């Protein structure tokens, strides 16, 4: 049961109803985290931001700063103290 | 009368970076700006721009209060006929617009931002809900540079080691002389290195400040630097057989076996493979029984031929002889051979140095480069070539070599993460995570179609003007200009004008009227840097820490701090919660949740930077501490600078680039987009013919360049700086090689028309010896074209606007990095 800190930004926060909290996860992957976070409608967050086995192209999921598509996607393992950010795909700082 | 005098520590903002300054204030008036000797970044030095900051504060042509245009007509020659309004009126009007836009479709906001020291404010459109960016300020110089630094070093920028390099090749860069990373400190570091005997070889088309002070200047045809470097690689590998084989074998993926499809071959566990020449066996790259790694040869794997990545390179460059390169670059073959030999000799392959009790490889020869060398149509491969030549001598992030420079205060060691196949995690995106592919795209700069690129803001001229071609299902109608001037700083001026004409409403946050803010409906005037706040670090070489910008006097006029303006706009636009959570992310406050901003609370810039200071340095180094001490900048230690990768390998062979390109091609084809050229995605650099060089109708090349005294040409409204520009014949005129000019019947002071396939400009010509005979040079200093500005009007060649000569199109864009071709073929004639 790793304890992680979750940040939900933009539309995701609005759909879930909170911005940040520490939570113990019953599982050890991002998929487990998403199932545990409920939207205000009572659905698991995966229903909002996933399409089959992938995150939709409208969302980023960052684990300690790394976007999970580059790794194992929803099967990305989580560990005690991880910082997880779920946010819309918007250019936080564009340019170069 | 008693004189009240004080010195206040702060940060310069006369360029993108932030030298520490000491500001002398006498009876409430700023009378002097000097470098802060306690700041390890600039060590008390300042460039001309820094000293002239006084004139930014006291510029009589600043916006002094919010204004609204009364002339409904917009255009280059239209006077906005500004009318003073209150801040409340300005916020009411823009706030209503923002609320309506958010309800309708936030993507319709087209932001254009250029405030580099307050990079966190670039996230404001994202909090609003817009994915767009209409700027090329970073792309112009660093579009391909940043991604390849990210793949190579997990870095944002790079610089040769000022402390230990003995043989510095500089290609198309002003580092240490006139521009780029933290100029004042870099000039001192470069001077110190020269004093201890470092040799400097400068390769570029003109006798730049760097070339003028170099041991050797090698004039080169624009846009051919990659051929020069590939021929150097040829000499090292094919002629001299001198390269750092041990480094390549053990610290890079050069021994990994590559199949005929260009991908690494893998075993049943998806592990990449090497050939062990001692055991004569193919083995997984991490097999503990490996006795040696083959860099050369052809081997059989599953019945097919496979080769080490190094052999792939060796084969690829087999035709890149110095004689071949001479035809492309105009650099004599014997010069290329000599430079290659000097470079590899000075690299002292195999030598070591002990620093602070730790032994490091010592490679005191390195190639440094920037815009001129790689902001070209094949900029990705340009950058790959420069990294490759450095890797061949094993000098990446070791004493004397080529060092990654992080964007912020982190060290490379902080940033490096394990990636695929025993290599470091490639980090082409340093500003935001990579956009997933999407069709139709959301962003008007097509970021969803640039998996390793930097936001190619110029492509707004393609998408906004031809949305159907790209499947774009909306068109922006509201533009936000923030410390930027896209009409001046983007290529393809006529197309940029057309994008402006598509906008129903434009609001601008700036200090001055410029070519672009002149089109605004409302102006929100920012404080100057001597009146406002930030706590910052942006791509500082050799040092780390933060420096505080703080008000040295009370604001002179009815202006506001940009950060406070954006907070107020977020509140009026009803997305303050999203902005605060975004600030928590981009300012790193999420790392210390106790300092995070609460979602619905309005903070001031001063309150925010107090939190940032505490989150970074603890309660005892709060904003009050910074107000007194100014900065925490310090030299990085050898442990922080060197050998940051541990057991991880570097990407000599950039399979990641090929993979991203192939995936993009497949994704686009699924949506019927078969016209997008993905041939720009290659694992190794090579020479590819560019239309820049095959053009037959224009006999010359045009280039542009920065000067020490101007930040691009934004500062050309500063009388002290423009005084220098107009008195310097090299900076106040279009320049051409004397013999070329005379052959065309031109003489000093003639008015000329320079034409390209895409536009034409007029200016005065100066004939000089210090420029390649095929080149016409355009200093930034003469490029502004704002009408009726008394300082700009002092520049005789004012309006010789280089960007008018450039195309803004997909065709002239590197489809991997997003950078566009910044050289162009031209003809010249007497006006």
What report would you give on this structure?
Chain A has 96 residues and is of the alpha+beta class. Chain A has one domain: Roll (Ubiquitin-like (UB roll)). Chain A has helices at residues 11-16, 30-36, 45-49, and strands at residues 3-8, 20-24, 50-51, 54-55, 59-63, 66-67, 83-88. In chain A, strands 2-1-7-5-6 form a five-stranded mixed sheet. In chain A, a hairpin with a 2-residue loop joins strand 5 and strand 6 (66-67). By secondary structure, chain B is an alpha/beta fold. Helix content of chain B is 29%, strand content 18%. Chain B contains 28 helices and 32 strands. In chain B, the strands form ten sheets. Chain B has a six-stranded mixed sheet with strand order 5-4-22-21-20-6, with helices on one face. In chain B, helix 9 packs antiparallel against helix 12. Chain B starts with a strand and ends with a strand. The mean pLDDT of chain B is 97. The chains are: A alpha+beta (96), B alpha/beta (831). The A-B interface holds A 5, 7, 9-10, 13, 19-20, 55, 57-58, 60, 62, 66-67, 69-70, 83, 85, 87-96 and B 113-114, 119-120, 122-123, 125-127, 129-133, 135, 137-139, 141-143, 145-146, 417, 425, 431-438, 442-443, 445, 447-448, 454-455, 457, 577-578, 581-582, 584-586, 590-591, 593, 596, 599.
Question: What is the average of the pLDDT values of chain A?
Answer: 91
Beta fraction of chain A = 25-35%
Structural class of chain A: alpha+beta
Which strand order do you get reading across the main beta sheet of chain B? 5-4-22-21-20-6
Span from first to last CA of chain A? Answer: 40 Å
CATH class of chain A: Alpha Beta
| Total of helices of chain A | 3
What is the CATH homology-level superfamily of chain A? Beta-grasp domain
Q: Give the tally of β-strands of chain A.
A: 7
- Largest sheet entry of chain A: 5 strands, mixed
Task: Estimate the helix proportion of chain A, in percent.
Answer: 10-25%
Give the overall shape of chain A, derived from the CA principal axes.
globular
Q: Which CATH-level-2 architecture of chain A? A: Roll
Number of helices of chain B: 28
Shape, principal axes of CA atoms of chain B? globular
